[in-house]
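Onboarding guide, step 5: your first structure request.
Type a short instruction followed by the sequence, for example:

Predict the 3D structure of this protein.
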Amino acid sequence: MTASSVPRWNPWLALAERDDIELWFASLGGDRGRWVRSAEGDEIVLEVSLARRARAEVLAHELVHAERGVGWPLATVATMQLEEERVWRIALDRLAPPAEVLAFVRRRSAVAPVTALDVADEFDLSVEAARRVLRLALVRSPRPPEGGGPALSG
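The system replies with C-alpha cells like these:
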C-alpha cells in the first residue's frame, strides 16, 4: 500500500479479471514476453526463466499490448518500435505511478541520494525498470528550485 492507502496496480490481479487472456510460460529464446491475438482470444507467453519482478513487469507490458490491440502481423516495424516505447511507459506508470515516484524521491533524497535500487525496492521493480522509471521521472518533473531538488545517483 502507498502512503495514500490506495493499492498499487497489480498485473496479476488485472490478468485474473480478464477471462479472454490465457497465460503461458515457455522458453522464448531471448524474448521476455509475447502477446498474440487470435479469433479464440488473447494469449500472453512469458519467458519461464524471468525473475519475479521482471515477470510482473513483462506481464504488465503484455497486458497493455492486449488493451491497445496494436501488434504483429498487422503493424509495421516502425509502428511497433513506437508502440514498444509507449507500452513500456504505460506499464511502468501503472507499476510505479509518476506522482508516487516523485514523492518518494523527494522524501528519500532528504536523507541521501536516491538510487535505482531504492526505487526498485520501494516499487517492487527490477533495477533495470527502476532506472527507466527514474529517467522518466526526471524528464517529466519540473526543474527543481535553484539550490534544491531531489538528489539522484546511479
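Each response can be followed by summary notes, for example: The chain has a mean pLDDT of 88.
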